[in-house]
Amino acid sequence: MLNTNTAKIGFIGYGNMAGATARGLMLSGAIKPEQIYACANDYDKLCRKAAADGIHPCKTSFEVVETCDVIFIGVKPYMVEGVMSPLKDVLHGKIIISLAANTYDDVLEEIMPSAHHVATAPNTPVSACEGIFICEEENTLTEEEKAFVHELLENLGLVLWMDRDHMGIGGVIAGCTPAFVAMFMEALGDAGCKHGLTRPVVYKLIAQMLAGTGKMALKSGDHPGQMKDAVCSPAGTTIVGVSTLEKNGFRFAVIDAIDQIQNKIHGKA
Ligand SMILES: NC(=O)C1=CN([C@@H]2O[C@H](COP(=O)(O)OP(=O)(O)OC[C@H]3O[C@@H](n4cnc5c(N)ncnc54)[C@H](O)[C@@H]3O)[C@@H](O)[C@H]2O)C=CC1
Ligand SMILES: O=C(O)[C@@H]1CCC=N1
Fold first, then answer.
1. At which positions is NADP(+) bound (predicted)?
2. Over the stretch 106-152, which tens digit does the pLDDT of each residue have?
């Protein structure tokens, strides 16, 4: 029976998302570095990252699969088939957690019918154990394996099981938008710098402001409009900024960005 104290966790591909997942699992204390094995395209680069993280670098994906009980797929979506198909014979009964965007259970089943697989849509804040793992409800895990996967991923933040129709947009809102937020942070940093704050101070203020606003929303359940109203004093300063953002199409720019991502996913762009 699988348990987090002894399970060996593998990563095929050890880039941004896989590394974030591994680091989150280690930071949470659920998984020790010596339980983690990874392979990647560039072995020397992998060895440097593995040494920094304290995990085992592997020369081949076969080594990862043969050694591990649970294997995360951390390669680009278009590579999943080419990387996983040659492993067909060694995947029997292994738990496979795919990180690949918009790559669902039907595709995984086609490529690796003998594995017990689940498709997910994660985000990089898992590295700080404040992330999201959306998992597809349709999967080939046993009930016991599903409970184990849920427990493992819960160490990294929120775990939500979703039907395929909502996985795409859920994955975009959870997985793509950390980049938007980082752009917002950078813009606020530039503005703070322009008006005299040093970079270390302004970025600290911004990060804490964002973490606090998110936590407040989760704790109170308040509507975002209510949270905005609570900051805007009548004839005060914030409302001047809010109206300037409206004039510049701030909210439409965000909705349009999501629309364009969806168009790309659905082949319309
Ligand atoms: N970066 C993100 O925020 C998110 C990424 N994802 C998904 O995670 C997956 C990985 O994306 P990133 O980490 O951003 O990409 P990345 O480019 O940082 O990492 C890709 C990794 O795959 C490895 N790789 C390439 N060819 C390989 C091969 N033949 N065998 C083994 N490893 C190989 C590379 O060496 C690298 O370690 C993608 O499928 C993406 O859709 C999902 C949600 C969020
Ligand atoms: O940009 C991408 O394709 C990946 C999927 C979600 C976030 N990053």
1. 12-17
2. 999 999 999 999 999 999 999 999 999 999 999 999 999 999 999 99
3 is in an annotated binding site: no
DSSP per-residue string spanning 173-211? IIIIHHHHHHHHHHHHHHHHHHTT--HHHHHHHHHHHHH
C-alpha 132 – ligand 2 centre gap (Å): 14
Q: Whose CA is nearest to atom 5 of ligand 2?
A: 101
Site residues for ligand 1, CB cut-off 6 Å:
12-18, 39-42, 61, 74-77, 79, 83, 99-101, 122-124, 175
Rounded to the nearest whole angstrom, what is the distance from the C-alpha of residue 44 to the centroid of ligand 1? 17
* Least distant ligand from the CA of 81: 1
In the chain the domains, ranked by start, together with CATH numbers, are 9-162 (3.40.50.720), 178-265 (1.10.3730.10)
Please give the number of the atom of ligand 2 that sits closest to the Cα of 124: 7
Neighbours of 226 (CB within 10 A): 11
Residue 172: DSSP 8-state? I
Complex-level ipTM: 0.99
Please tell me the number of the ligand nearest to residue 18's CA.
1
The conformational region for residue 150 under phi > 0 = left, psi -120 to 50 = alpha, else beta, is alpha
85-119 tens-digit pLDDT:
999 999 999 999 999 999 999 999 999 999 999 99
First to last CA, the chain: 46
Residues 6+ apart with CB under 8 A from 212: none
